[in-house]
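Give me a protein, keeping tokens residue-aligned:
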Amino acid sequence: MAGPADRRLIWLSDNSAHEMAGYLAYLERHADLSADVVRPNLHLPAHPTHGPLLGTGTANVEQLADVLANAERRPVLEDRSWFGRWAELRSENGLLRIMDGTELVSAPIETYDRLLLSAAAPEWRKGILVVGHALAASFDEQVRVSPDFLFSR
């Protein structure tokens, strides 16, 4: 007989577009499977300067161990309202998925151009400087965007 240790455990940072997209896709494919969800940002205190984790992968080993041992686990069925959301997002055919508060939404490709434009200067700057300053601004805004995506723009 399977015990609690045999249940799937899904780690989810509700403010990470990557994790939320993966979770919604999981719900679409495996809604019938039993699993628990743990949300590190609901358990861990926010950093005084940087705020909450920008994804589970940004937690250190001690934080991960604390969450694994002590954080509340909820059955995936409690997120029943999100079932079907991934299909809706895919039907919108948007090029980006971003977090709008606690909701994953489709967004136009130029969504992060403002970060790049604010980092550009009237005189020529190397791309690495523009992207580096844009990334710093994204951290200040608690936005997670890939440097590769910014370079592609």
